[in-house]
Each structure stands twice: as structure tokens, then as C-alpha cells.
Fold this protein.
Amino acid sequence: MINQNKIKLISSLNKKKYREQHQLFIAEGEKLVLDLINSKLNISEVFIRDNWNGNKIIPTGITTTHTTEQYLKKISQLKTAPPIIALCSMPKKNLADINFSNDLCIALDDIQDPGNLGTIIRLADWFGIKNIVCSQNTVDVYNPKVIQATMGAIARVNIHYTDIEELLIEQQKQQVPIYGTFLDGEDIYSNKLSPSGIIVMGNEGKGISPAIEQYVDSKLLIPSFSTNLDKSESLNVSTATAITLSEFKRRI
């Protein structure tokens, strides 16, 4: 059974300051938790509903607590508590390990929506992007809604938080190509694209900020093929990321 102190701890992880304090985050649901268990992430503890028939697939060596649906509801962040919830340790990431000259990376300029960040992480996993660099004002990757939206990709993509402007200044000195998506950019389908470099994606409402825009070497436009005069003004940032990554990888 889960004691009251553990319930209090897990419930507190809904807030960023407590996640950072304890260096822990939660993951919920069978597919997500099993993906994380089978990854390199450190699973601190797993909480399983007593009558869940999947408990036999949890590897030995992982601390497992059997409990009731009533207690799972107390620690779950979802509307309907799943049969399994995991308490996970935050992995240590080192920005210095990234070789921007040889790898294609994503930089996120103040993404605010947890669903968008989670989807972008899934896209990075799908297209073989190992690292995403986030501005300090980008939504916290360990927000439960972000973790849920990654569908396990959080275990395979490295997420870093840093001063994006300082990063781009340094990488520009190293002649690393820096791309960004803009409504006044050049057609991505006819523009020259590099197999390595940094792709900057901007805020949902404001796009790439002027402070970051000045370091973008190649402004890319995803053209609209609509014949309607009143077509959509822009694409959702995660959708734009998918199209952009697809075109980069298609060229490679």
C-alpha cells in the first residue's frame, strides 16, 4: 500500500519546483511506463493496481508497490487513473556532449504548450534527432502532460535547457548552419539544406523572437498549396516541425 508521505510526494510532482527539488517525475499508463522501464532511464518505483493482469511483465529488480484503484486515483494526474504509474529519476544531460557540426538538432524558442513539446519530442525520435535544446522559458519537459504526449520518446531524445541566444552566438562562430521557419522565408522545398546544424522553431503565437531571428542564417517557408483566399495564416508548431524534419531527412 502507498503511505501518506509517498502520496504527498507524488502529488507534489505536478509542480515544477518539486520535480526539480526531488529530481523525479511521474509517468502513467501501460505503454508509456513499459517503454520507460525498457529504456536506460532509472525507474525509482512502480505502482500497480492489485488486479492488473500485466504485473508479470514488470522486470525483477524494479521496486514495485501493489495498491488499489482508490490510491492510484490519489496520485494520478489523469482523469481516469491507469493500472500502472511509475516514479522516474530525471536523467542527467550534458549540452557539451552535442556536436552541432555533425548532428541535426532542434532549438525551441519559448514553446508553451505541453502537447506541442511532447509531440515535437516524438517527432525527433521518429526522424532520428538525438537532441532538442529548449529556451529557459519553454514548458518543462517533465510536466506530466508533456511526458504523456511523448508516448515514451522522452527516453530516447535528450532534452537540454539553456540560453538559446548564447548557444546560437557560439555555434554561429563555429559556422554551424542555423535554420528557422518564417512566413517570409524562402521555400523549404527549393532551398539548400544541410545534413547537420540547428533548426529553430518558434513560439506558438509569436513565432521566433527578434532576439533569436538575428542569428538565423536561412529563413525557411513551408508554402501553402491552398487555393482558398481565406486560407489558414500559419501552421501549428508541431506540424511545422514534422514537415521541416521530413524535408531535411528526405534530402539526406
Observations:
- The chain has a mean pLDDT of 94.
- The longest helix spans residues 237-251.
- The domain at 95-251 is CATH 3.40.1280.10 (Alpha/beta knot).
- The chain has nine helices and ten strands.
